[in-house]
């Protein structure tokens, strides 16, 4: 498979997962309470650290040698994807327990 195509598909899956996280967070932030406040704070902290984590992942991967554009994009997508998938799992569990 074309590396750009497979990368695009992975980024599309990541975008769909991010949309689910956004929907869960909006629902949580719309309801008052301690969870909304904690989720808001968690979200802000993640927004600050996510670029640094992605950059650290690229630096760690490039120690082995120069990375192509596709390889760099995969590393960055993987770093953000790890965080997004973890949030999706956590928020899904929360939504199921609240229902």
From TrEMBL:
Q: What is this protein called?
A: Antifreeze protein
Please give the organism: Prosthecomicrobium pneumaticum
